[in-house]
Structure formats: structure tokens, C-alpha cells
Amino acid sequence: MQKNRLHGLFISTGLVWATLSCGQSPIQNWEGNWQGTMRIGMAGKAEERAIEVPVEMQIAKTDTPGVWLWLTKYKGSMPVEKKYYLKAKDESKGAYETDEGNGIVLPMTLIGKSIYSRFEVMNNLLSTCYTLDGDTLYFEVISGSTKPGSTSGKGNEESPEVLAFPIQQVQRSVLTRLR
């Protein structure tokens, strides 16, 4: 079993090395113009009461190597434009960061076909995930309070204390690459 794990590790390490040594970033596959809808669901609200917002997104390489424009436009009744930059920190480890241009920089991790981030702002814990599946880009934000909603377990080795954090909102976007 250990031999198979090592074999898999060497294959995946080799694939990462081959991709990087050819001068290509995995993020190049994400480049393009995207369009779709974001649905915002709230805890305790029926699915049919979810809010829908049209979304446009542009992911484009910049003149700076390892930096991509990450522009998102929310086209609802109160339009919002977010102009961020995704920056490669150590692509061999899947390490990136999103620079919001206002002093906020969020670490991002590429694992497989998804880029993840988790952070706390104003007493809210947010987990984000972008997933690329061909010409479809999924984006999800899960948020809730940083205060535990419940605690369980006995606080020992057999039954450690577990803090549970309630989810209050989920935003899901499904975007299609424009050709």
C-alpha cells in the first residue's frame, strides 16, 4: 500500500513539474470571460426564496508573470464590481493569493481543479471554493459566525471537544465560458 502511495506522489509531483517546466501555469486553463448566475441562500429560508444575481467574470493574464486579473461584476439591482488580482506565490505547492487592492490579501490554495480560501472578517468565517470543470466555473462562498453554535465531546482523547460553527449563508455561482 505504501509503495502505491509513493508511486502516486511521484506521478503527481512529476505532472506538476512537467506543467511548470513547460512554462505553463494551471491557471492558464481558467483564463477567459465567464457569465452566469449567483444564487444566495439563507439559513431558514426556502430554496425558492433564494436571491439570484447575474454575474460576469473575467480572468486574464497581466503583463506581470504569475499575476492574473480576477474581475467579477455582480449585475443585480445594486451592481458591484470587484477587481482583484490572483498572484502565484509557489505554484509547485498550489500557493496563490488574492490581492483585493485595498491592503487585503487572502491566501488561496489550488488542489486538483479547485482553488480554496478560508478567512475571518468582521466576526464571520468564510470558506470559498472556485472549481473549474471544462467550460464551467463554479464559485461557492459559505459563511457564518466565528462564534461556535454548539460544543460536544467529553474533552478527552477518546472524545475530544468539538466546536460546531453554524452556516448562515451560501452563495453559489455557475458560470459558463463565453466563446
SSE order and pairing:
Elements: H1 2-21, E1 32-42, E2 51-61, E3 67-74, E4 80-90, E5 95-99, E6 105-111, E7 114-121, E8 124-133, E9 136-145, E10 150-152, E11 162-164, E12 169-177
Explain what the structure shows.
This protein has 179 residues and is mainly beta. It has one domain (26-177): Calycin beta-barrel core domain (Lipocalin). 11% of the residues lie in helices and 54% in strands. The chain has one helix and twelve strands. The strands form two sheets. It has a ten-stranded antiparallel beta barrel. A two-stranded antiparallel ribbon has the order 10-11. The radius of gyration is 19 Å and the shape is globular.
What is the CATH superfamily classification? Calycin beta-barrel core domain
Classify the beta-strand content into a percent band: over 45%
Low-confidence residue ranges:
1-22
Instruction: Indicate the radius of gyration in whole angstroms.
Output: 19 Å
Oligomer: single chain
Q: Sum up the overall morphology in one term.
A: globular
Whole-number total of structural domains: 1
- CATH level 1 name: Mainly Beta
Q: Report the order of strands and helices.
A: HEEEEEEEEEEEE
Number of helices: 1
Structural category is: mainly beta
